[in-house]
Structure formats: structure tokens, C-alpha cells
Amino acid sequence: MKFKLTNDYIALGQLLKACDVVSSGGEVKYFLANCPVFLNGEKEDRRGKKIYAGDVVEADGIRIEVE
């Protein structure tokens, strides 16, 4: 799936919520602790990590290309 940024960046937790990987912001911390999430091929577990255009996030079998 593709995600179009409206600002310079989006936090990882906000991206996961916006793409319906998690249903609420409260679930993000639990999700990151229990499901592997990869940012550009490297494991990432910080919900506040800034995601920029060109980044690729993979989580729970979903690939998100940020534009």
C-alpha cells in the first residue's frame, strides 16, 4: 500500500494507525512490543520514530511505501 505524506514526516505510531494496522493509538505500544516492524529492512520499535517520504515500513504482512 502507498501512504502520501501531507507534512515533512509522520511518526511510526501515527502511520500504523492511519494505515489501519492498529485500530487505536493505545494499541501501538503493545503492537510494537509483540509484532516485528521493519523500517527500510531494519527492525524498529520506537513509536515516535520519524518516517519520511521514500521510507518503507513492513508490519504484520503489510508493506507501506511512504510518498
From TrEMBL:
Pfam families: S4_2
Domain of life: Bacteria
Gene3D superfamilies: RNA-binding S4 domain
InterPro entries, alphabetized: S4_RNA-bd_sf
Keywords, comma-separated and alphabetical: RNA-binding
SUPFAM superfamilies assigned to the protein according to its UniProt record, in alphabetical order: Alpha-L RNA-binding motif
Molecular function GO terms recorded: RNA binding
Name of the protein described by the UniProt record: Uncharacterized protein
Naturally occurring in which organism (per UniProt): Dubosiella newyorkensis
